[in-house]
Amino acid sequence: MVRRCLTLTVVMLVLAGCYDRFPGPDLQNTLDADVALSITYTDGKIASFTLPPGRSVLISRGDLPEGGIQWVVVQEGGKIIHRLNRDEVRLLVEKQRKHKTYAIWCIDREDIYLFEPNPPDTGGCTQGKRIE
Predict the structure, then answer these.
(1) Containing domain of residue 34, as a range?
(2) Is it the case that residue 29 has pLDDT exceeding 80?
């Protein structure tokens, strides 16, 4: 039963990947502590997540209002470590689209950066290369 569900999920993800070349940012926490992630959309809605170490969240394009993302704020231990405005988010999106392969938005203490996992199905910010 579980295997069947996983197979169906993989098929759906492959089909969705064929339809939408940029599904939205896949953000992963590379820190050794939980981070609080808050995304403010241009329509005023706010989505908040707590990401444990090594976990990720995919913000699908279908979740985005027409204007997109206004702010991305990342906190560790109640302290803001990153605050990306709309222009900074747009630059990361454009960089990812130009790269034309799957990339993860890796969150560390110094930066939020794009990373191409190798092999692509590892889903992590540890094996592969940083996208400059």
Answers:
(1) 22-131
(2) yes
